[in-house]
Amino acid sequence: MLFVYYSVSGRNLGDLDFGRAIQSQRLSLVFAHFDAFVGDTFRSIIRQKPGILRKEKSLKWTEILDFGNWDRLISEMTETLVYDLGWKDIEGKLSFFAEKFGMEIEIDCDDRALLSAGERLRHLIIHNGGKVSAEHIRRTGDSTQKIGDSAEIDPKRVDDITMVLRKAASDLFKAVSKTFYDKEPSDLTAIPTFGTVEKKAT
Questions:
Q1: In-domain check, residue 198
Q2: 59 — phi, psi (to 5°)?
Q3: Residue 168: which domain range?
Q4: In contact, 20 and 152? CB cutoff 8 Å
Q5: Using one digit for the tens of pLDDT, what is the confidence trace for 62-83?
Q6: Do the domain assignments include residue 189?
């Protein structure tokens, strides 16, 4: 795809910073994978406790009949809630599981700040080609950045973000397994266990 783009645009493929492109993909995908994991986790909870679907929302009779059967109706309602959850940022997703199900995922303040910064950078990569925007400067409060410049993507920070998200996913999996599936730690030995995430020296 990159070869086609550079050929059509008349630019030299050798001008592409492949290292930056790889780090951009790493950062984008690790958040995408975590989002997908959170969605699947919520689906598994609803399968165990479908009463969670009881909300102050309504459907017309014609809409209910259009689904054809109960399973399709439940599936559609589930996907609606998963979609709504998907719009939340990392902090919002973790707060959702804590507030609704009492599952506190321990992530310290520094790691939460790291994830928030990573999400802002991911947003910049996905929606602005990794170029600094006025909105990004406003959100980060970093006035040293210039609009249109390429945002810095530090591989070490991507490594740290990856490890924090892996720990969060592992802890969430274990919490859901215990709360909704009556699993004990001895049943979950195949699931990685992470202590305090050690940051790489910069």
A1: no
A2: -125, 145
A3: 17-182
A4: no
A5: 887 888 888 888 888 899 899 9
A6: no
